[in-house]
């Protein structure tokens, strides 16, 4: 890839491509290790992991490659303080934090860990820059999992964040191939994060039924569950239909919240209940129709991105 970017020098990676930290899918060593081996940034998703399993995954990735990798810590998680302690003790090369402020940044700056912060608005990005983070990840409303509550698309959000800060911006949301990565660079970003695309690799540790449902999805087959709170973008299924019907019927807020919390990502990702579990996926699911190995995918993305760049300058 010949797009200009500060990320390779900043993070020690060959390609400015990040694998999104996805609970269950990358709460392991296999997917992050494969991505990092290929020269992109593999990311361990700490969220649902037991502390001992997180330590084991970090050590397995480190044993498998000399290339950098990251640990993603959702700061709202009740175990986030323990996850941060583990990341510090294990001296992870890169920490990616989301859904909270970078208060623990000085601890990681002292040991040389790079801190990337997930943001959902130009204001949040500016605050993160002022706090001293190394780069921000701007996630648009197309993304799976927990996108921005205001649903602003990556096309607008990434551009606004680039205009708001001077540190590197990584664009995310709706990116599934090299053309999408090139689009992030066209907006002024210096890299791209892909979640659903890496979910659809052989190394991602989610149930086969989950991958089958994502593979069959079209670009309009996702929905947001839980608007007004911490929304989740997932594929439409029996559960999302029940929530939608309850909202339209005027279910009291407390009851609706209890309904939304009655089902989980684990139900779908681990147990394979893709009708009633939360099948988190981005709109880019409709652009994906295969299940490659993660290393093969990274190499493909690099080639596709360079091909897109050449089309633009031809």
How many beta-strand segments? 10
Mean pLDDT: 96
N-end to C-end Cα span: 16 Å
So how many helices? 14
Full CATH superfamily name of the largest domain:
Aldolase class I
Order of helices and strands: HEHEHEHEHEHEHEHEHHEEHHHH
Structurally, the number of domains stands at: 2
Shape: globular
Sequence stretches where pLDDT stays below 50 over 5 or more residues? none
State the CATH class of the largest domain: Alpha Beta
> Structural class, from helix and strand content?
alpha/beta
Report the helical percentage: 40-55%
Radius of gyration: 18 Å
Write the CATH architecture name of the largest domain: Alpha-Beta Barrel
Strand content: 5-15%
Strand order of the largest sheet: 1-8-7-6-5-4-3-2
Q: If you consult CATH, what is the topology of the largest domain? A: TIM Barrel
**How is the main sheet built?**
8 strands, parallel
Layout of helices and strands:
Elements: H1 7-11, E1 17-19, H2 30-37, E2 42-45, H3 51-64, E3 69-74, H4 80-89, E4 94-98, H5 105-109, E5 114-119, H6 122-131, E6 135-139, H7 154-164, E7 169-172, H8 178-186, E8 191-194, H9 196-199, H10 208-216, E9 222-225, E10 232-235, H11 238-248, H12 253-261, H13 265-269, H14 294-313
Parallel strand pairs: 1-8, 2-3, 3-4, 4-5, 5-6, 6-7, 7-8
Antiparallel strand pairs: 9-10
């Amino acid at each position: 890839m010949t797009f200009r970017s500060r990320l390779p020098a900043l993070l020690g990676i060959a390609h400015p491509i990040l694998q999104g930290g996805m609970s269950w899918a990358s709460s392991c060593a296999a997917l992050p290790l494969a991505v990092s081996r290929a020269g992109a940034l593999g990311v361990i998703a700490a969220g649902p992991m037991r502390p001992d399993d997180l330590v084991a995954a970090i050590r397995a990735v480190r044993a498998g490659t000399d290339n950098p990798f990251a640990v993603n810590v959702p700061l709202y998680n009740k175990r986030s303080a323990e996850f941060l302690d583990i990341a510090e003790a294990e001296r992870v090369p890169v920490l990616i934090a989301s859904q909270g402020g970078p208060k623990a940044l000085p601890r990681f700056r002292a040991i040389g860990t790079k801190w990337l912060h997930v943001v959902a608005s130009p204001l949040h990005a500016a605050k993160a820059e002022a706090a001293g983070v190394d780069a921000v990840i701007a996630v648009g409303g197309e993304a799976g999992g927990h996108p921005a509550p205001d649903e602003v698309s990556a096309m607008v959000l990434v551009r606004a964040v680039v205009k708001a800060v001077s540190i590197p911006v990584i664009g995310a949301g709706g990116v599934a191939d090299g053309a999408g990565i090139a689009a992030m660079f066209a907006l002024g970003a210096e890299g791209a994060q892909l979640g659903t695309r890496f979910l659809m690799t052989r190394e991602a540790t989610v149930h086969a039924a989950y991958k089958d449902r994502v593979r069959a999805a079209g670009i309009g087959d996702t929905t947001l569950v839980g608007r007004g709170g911490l929304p989740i973008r997932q594929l439409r299924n029996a559960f999302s239909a029940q929530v939608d019907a309850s909202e339209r019927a005027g279910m009291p807020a407390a009851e609706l919240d209890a309904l939304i919390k009655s089902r989980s990502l684990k139900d779908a990702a681990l147990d394979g209940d893709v009708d009633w579990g939360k099948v988190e996926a981005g709109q880019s699911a409709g652009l994906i129709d295969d299940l490659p190995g993660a290393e093969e995918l990274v190499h493909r993305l690099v080639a596709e991105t360079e091909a897109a760049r050449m089309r633009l300058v031809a």
